[in-house]
Amino acid sequence: MTSARPAPTGLTSGARRVLQQNWTGSCTVPSPGLYPHQWSWDSAFIAIGSRHISPRRAQRELETLLAAQWGDGRIPHIVFNPAVPPAAYFPGPDFWRSATAGAAAGAPRHTETSGIVQPPVHALACLLVHRADPRSSARHGFLARAYPRLAAWHRYLGRARDLGGGGLVSVVHPWEPGMDNSPCWDAPLARVAPAPPGTFRRADLDHGAASDRPTDLDYGRYVRLAADYRDGGYADHTAGSAFLVEDPGVNALLIASEHALAEIAALLGADAAPHRTRAADLTAALVDRLWDPAAGLFLCRDLHGGGPGRDLHGGGPARDLHGGGPVRDLHGGGPARDLHGGGPVRELGAAGLLPLLVPGLPGDIAAALVRTACGDHFGLGRTARLVPSYDLLGPAFDPARYWRGPAWFNVNWLLERGLRLHGEPERADALRTAVLETAVTSGFAEYVDPYTGEARGTRDFSWTAALALDLAVAAGQEP
């Protein structure tokens, strides 16, 4: 049993206010100024929280997103609102040109979207929204309509995005894992020639401090990768010539959602066995390809590069953090190398902790992830108020800059859930309390300094409000 501690004063009313002011009538924007359209994994997290206010609104949130699904099954990372001025966000619909550049992949003809994707948390969100009001869900046929779209989404990821040949999903752009500016992408991005300065205008700097945002160099690389993918017709078999990475967070969320999809199938009287088998196969591949026992967490795998990398304690080739020699190849023999010529990215990112979400994760690996989360590199329950997005001891750590150190509320919500799943209720309770308190004191910030909780990025951020509300309800505080 978990302890029910009063939610901080103003949390419920504040979260309601944020979600109401950011609601458009069909979906919730992350932030009206900085992010004025619908984002894929944002809407999943927002629905998880808004289900406590209005299950029907949460259903509509997800239905609006799923309606923009492409014919090949992908769920785009942005669905554009035609009422928003083109200059309000870059890259906008005129850049992505989804209806024409994505025609061969089945992009919607009358809805403008981006062409890349975000982490697949949607089936989990649909299941949780259904549980909030099963009668309303059944009356509106919510799961019956969502299930075939979710199944097609998972098939797309499993078939079109197994670009490493090892059974895991690959990402073709740093925006796809959701942790856009992570130091985990520095080495893969170094191969990318940036789009020339002056060929694009960054609208994000109109709403946030430059010191909190990606550099112009990195942004130029993001633009070049997206343009190349677009110009190739969003074809995955030719994608990622410069950037191709297997990310543990993306794959962990797919596994969690595959388990959710199995439960949805069972509720609808469909065959759940293929989803359970797929989840088990993905879990085995995740452990085989990305688990690093020396680092004590899962590492990203660069399918084009990688290699020995930096010593995670500083200097020289990567060493076993417990005092051994070079990290072993998980397939046997020699330093870790990908079968296609790449190798692990030796940076410790929060995505490497997210497999705590995976049911059936081997107990020794789950225990090691908890030790790593609570150790010097992430400081959970010790030096950090919330789990940072990147290694506190890493050479690229910055407590203020986008995904290079700040703590994010969705990451901490996921880790709180993972701690409970793997028998750590006291740590989960402490993290939940910290999330709730920091959400209120930061003004529902986009992200915060992991040490102080100081607000960074924009305020009144939708998933911060939604996930804080969800944790408050879980703590026994009715909205």
From TrEMBL:
Region spans: Disordered: 310-334
The UniProt similarity line reads: Belongs to the glycosyl hydrolase 63 family.
Q: Where is the Mannosylglycerate hydrolase MGH1-like glycoside hydrolase domain?
A: 35-464
**InterPro entries given for it?**
6-hairpin_glycosidase_sf (IPR008928), 6hp_glycosidase-like_sf (IPR012341), Glycoside_hydrolase_63 (IPR004888), MGH1-like_GH (IPR054491)
What's in the keyword line of the UniProt record?
Answer: Glycosidase, Hydrolase
Hydrolase as a keyword of this entry, yes or no, is yes
Tell me the protein's name. Answer: Mannosylglycerate hydrolase MGH1-like glycoside hydrolase domain-containing protein
User: Tell me, what's a Pfam family for it?
Assistant: MGH1-like_GH
The coiled-coil regions, if any, are none
